[in-house]
Amino acid sequence: MTDIRLERSVYAPRDWVVHAWCDSSLLAEWFCPNPSMSVTAELDVDPNGFWKVAMGTAVVRGEYQEVSLPERLQFTWHWDHEPHLQPTIVRVTFVERSGMSTEVRLEHLDFESESDAQAHQEAWEITLSRLANVVPSRMAGSAGLS
Fold it and tell me: Which residues contact 2 (CB under 8 A, 6 or more apart)?
């Protein structure tokens, strides 16, 4: 099994960053490496709750295994178009660095192949960059969490 680990600083308070992972309309703004793709999200952010994101015709879904907010989320990850593969695990840890900075530590675990892990790492790098841009932008346009 192969794992990937990434870290990304987001210039926003931890509550805003966590909210971006838990609000379906906000998550749909950044949770795809291709910004021109239509994205929809359904989230039930509770232990054993389900989530689903459609990126164009590609659908990924899973179940929340741990919801320890504002510190951590852990969920399974399974592409609908790859029913033969076992689900992988995503663990996201939110570390408050200061009142205006949050470190997002993402681990995506249990890939069956190095090539699959590499493809997901490249996609996560772009996706986390999008998160780091969307949250401060949304924060600047709002007086509080919506």
Answer: 110, 111, 112, 113, 114, 116, 117
> What is the domain extent for residue 44?
2-140
Please give the structure tokens belonging to residue 94: 């939110």
For the cut 60, the answer to whether the pLDDT of residue 101 exceeds it is yes
CATH code of the domain covering residue 11? 3.30.530.20
Give the side-chain half-sphere CA count within 13 A for 92.
Answer: 23
Residue 109: partners with Cβ closer than 8 Å, 6 or more residues away: 1, 3, 88, 89, 90, 91
Average pLDDT over residues 43-55: 97
Alpha helix (H) residue ranges in 2-103: 14-22, 24-30
0.85 cut: is pTM over it? yes
Q: What's the structural domain count of the chain?
A: 1
Q: Nearest 5 degrees, angle CA 86-CA 89-CA 99? A: 165
**Residue whose pair of structure tokens reads 């663990």 in the numeric block:** 91
Give domain status of residue 145, yes or no: no
